[in-house]
Design goal:
rod-shaped, mainly alpha, 40 residues
Amino acid sequence: MDKFWSIFAMPIGLFICFFPALIVWLGMELKAKDRDKDGK
């Protein structure tokens, strides 16, 4: 079990930390693309 945590603790922590920010960023990118299409 120690080997599992030593390998996976950091990626799991990074995923938990950055996943909500990634969702927000993707949402803003998609909205910006829609705005660019409407403007042209």
